Amino acid sequence: MNTIAEFMSTDHRACDLTFATAEQAALTNSLSKAETAFETFRQNMQRHFRMEEEVLFPALLDAGGPGGPVQVMRMEHAQMNELIELMAAAVANKNTQEYSGLSETLLIVMQQHNLKEEQILYPIADRILAAELESLFSRMQAIQ
Amino acid sequence: MSTVSLSTEQAPPISVPLRFFAVAPLFLVLAALIGIMGDGIADAHTPALLAATHCITLGFIGMIMFGAMQQILPVVIGSPMPSSRLVAWFSLLPLIFGTLSLSGGFLLGNSVLLHLASVLLGLAFLVFIIASLVSLARAAARNTTATAILLSVLALTAAVTLGIVLAQGYASGWPLDYPKLAAAHISLALGGWVMLLIVGVSYQVVPMFQLTPAYPKWLSVGLAPALFSALLLNLASNYFEIHTLEFFAVCLFCLCAISFALVTLRLQFRRRRRVTDATLNFFRLGMISLLCAALCAAATLIAPAHEYFRQLSIVIFILGFALSVIHGMLYKIIPFLVWFHLFRGGVKKGVPNMKEVIPEHWMWRHLWLHIATLLAALLASFWDAAAWLLILGLSLQGVVLSIAIFTGIMVYRRTYQRLAKV
User: Fold this and answer.
1) What's the pTM value of the predicted model, to 2 decimals?
2) Coil, strand or helix: which one is A129?
3) In this prediction, does ipTM exceed 0.90?
4) Portion of chain A with pLDDT greater than 90, in percent
5) Do A107 and B273 touch (CB under 8 A)?
6) Which of B31, B98, B230, B313: disulfide with B121, CB 3.0–4.6 Å?
7) Which positions in chain B touch A23 (Cβ < 8 Å)?
8) What are phi and psi of A121, to 5 degrees?
9) Where are the alpha helices (DSSP H) in B173-318?
10) Structural domains in chain A?
């Protein structure tokens, strides 16, 4: 990995994959699989949010990066977290229909959020944090 | 690089895109009503068919694209249109009345209406084109989508200019080379504006909606410039009457269109999200239609029934490709907008999720109705009854889509009022 954009985009794709697995399991009524798959997805998402909120965003702001966009990204994380919690309840209640609607909604929120990060925020981060990439990568990888 | 654009307020108010979406389906009904007045669709140049076609291309396709661009630009290129409300009014109203005057002008052979249409449509497109160019100039993301959208706006500018020249020419009786100008107008409007816009937006939304792999780089970088070059070559061949050049331009365009359709179908086949919804099928139908339209266009080069294949290619492009993709996009965008604008308020409880806005079975029924309409359109030149089925299908689609859009608006209003009381 040479850039923040590549590093973080790869993690986006990994989250997408667990999203699709969880959705497939929930919609085909394999309940035990659905719970495990959803849990993996939730953990992946939370790990990604923490990588950004605890390492990348503070580094970006310290280096004089744009505060407004970072604020919007945090707000969208909060939105996605709320949807993920509603989905957790749907999995617990075995409510497939509810899960399917929430999952459809989360997908669009997640994807348009990723687009903004990948096309705008990460390229900015790559420009202003070029000197400390290695340290950023290892700090982000350390997050469980 | 500007970062200002990535703000909370970058999405336009929900009323901006919905206003365009609410009006557009009425033009499908109007096109069908005009079709009843016409004498079949055997001749593409009857006034009734010209009027009906422009109701679909300007009143429906143009209207939806005006609204959708306001919504999509902030997401795909990171830059909203300036003064969204003002741009919305100054493009929506002249587009509505301009399309009505143009259709009326064709039907009645009335030159005053045709002059009026030129002024109104000129204004609508001028506002829209300037707003799009400002948004593109301010775009933070310089990606392949931004390039495709820029080229599509340039093609639109040329298509509108030619359209106005044609309308003025008809109205004033100028001695113009109408078939030549009309051919250039059609290729720039459909092959340029509609095709390039769908290509550019697909680069982002196809992977996004179904979690497919990204478009291969050779395609996303090369396709839009290649399509645009093919259009320019076609214009040059048309103007200088060089038939070898025309052959080359049509081949290049068809090759690009076929590659785009095949790659998109393959990406969708390899999607990680296995759920099949009506939207995905609308999109797949659109790509299969594009494939057929391109093959028909290629057939014009070798087949003896040249004019028949040309018209068939245009019909499949408009009804099969453009309309299918638009319907599919609308059934994603509208539920998302309703959810998004309700959920960002303080109260989250009771906000309907995307599948609670427009019932899924409604979208599936529309898909089947759309397929039936398309089949009727294909048979219409051999079988008179099919022309009536086409008219019926088109008007029913207008009604079905109107009901879906108003359902979305009502869900938004009711939930908004309920949440306001909490």
Assistant:
1) 0.93
2) coil
3) no
4) 67
5) yes
6) B98
7) 273, 275
8) -70, -50
9) 178-186, 195-210, 217-240, 243-269, 278-302, 306-315
10) 4-141 (1.20.120.520)
